[in-house]
């Protein structure tokens, strides 16, 4: 199998970047999008604010305590969607093999692209410069032989960075990579690995696949593969999906239902972007909301809503109201999605005998 060349691009502090682009007075101040009133939460913030410890999903009151000079602006999803569409259009001029993950990040498979001397590094530089000039924001990019490593690489030199992991560099790179960097390794899994003396991917390789499977089941095999720098997942452009959803796990729990409602517009915007990217689908049959609380208990509620063409926040609100029975319970993950009408089931009764 030929060696893949994967680029992962990630817009730097995307919502805040669009705000700073459109209002130059915001460029030299600590800035947060969202979290201005009452118990709202920060949707994203610029790097000046992050220097004070402000983070996305943090209650606005706490953000202002950490950074008394914090400037807040309300989210403007229409402008963010427009900027996202500009970025994605630039990516698609490079290759059709683009897999958007949200409004502000995407994978590209450039394995067969011959422009820019066939160099994924030169392609990434070209994309970053075009986004800077044409959209007016910066993106960080990671170049690697697979999706897992490309996503890690894009975060390596943020903001406005480019990091490349060549196939020859993979063994040395993953050797010292902290296990927390692996996709799906949260605090609980990391703590369990640490208790086993495993702090890096090198440690995990020494532990061996059999022990990992014994301790973590199917996830153990996936952990071992990632620890060795292997990931065979292709960049997926389109597929016949039974459902489409987006979810976000917060580094700091959302404090209550009001905070969840603050995050919903961004989630629904990302959902509609994914629906648009997938092109013409079967009609929507159901909407659903998924929630995971701070104690890791997970609940999903879905309802038939066949008249919805492009879901809005108001369409999901009744489900959130029904699902969240205690308004002050901290939330770790929030997701929204749609299920499509299935016409695969036979409509006529099968004959018992030929």
Overview of this structure, please?
Helix content is 38%, strand content 20%. With 354 residues, it is of the alpha+beta class. The strands form three sheets. Strands 5-6-1-7-8 form a five-stranded mixed β-sheet. A four-stranded antiparallel β-sheet has the order 9-12-10-11. A three-stranded mixed β-sheet has the order 3-2-4. α4 packs antiparallel against α5 and α10 crosses α11.
Summarize the structure.
With 354 residues, the protein is of the alpha+beta class.
Helix vs. strand class: alpha+beta
- Give the rounded overall mean pLDDT: 90
Distance linking N and C termini: 46 Å
Q: Which segments are poorly predicted (pLDDT under 50) over 5 or more consecutive residues?
A: 344-354
* Relative strand content: 15-25%
Number of alpha- plus pi-helical segments: 13
Strand order of the largest sheet: 5-6-1-7-8
Radius of gyration: 22 Å
Q: Biggest sheet, in brief?
A: 5 strands, mixed
Secondary-structure element pattern, one letter each = EHEEHHEHEEHEHEHHHHHEHEEHE
Shape: globular
Structure characteristics:
354 residues; alpha+beta; 5-stranded mixed beta sheet; 4-stranded antiparallel beta sheet; 12 strands; globular; disordered C terminus
List the topology elements.
Layout: E1 6-11, H1 14-22, E2 31-33, E3 44-45, H2 47-50, H3 60-66, E4 71-73, H4 77-94, E5 98-102, E6 105-109, H5 120-134, E7 139-144, H6 147-154, E8 162-164, H7 170-175, H8 187-195, H9 201-207, H10 209-216, H11 218-227, E9 243-254, H12 257-277, E10 284-293, E11 298-304, H13 313-323, E12 331-340
Parallel strand pairs: 2-4, 7-8
Antiparallel strand pairs: 1-6, 1-7, 2-3, 5-6, 9-12, 10-11, 10-12
Helix pairs in contact: 4-5, 9-11, 10-11
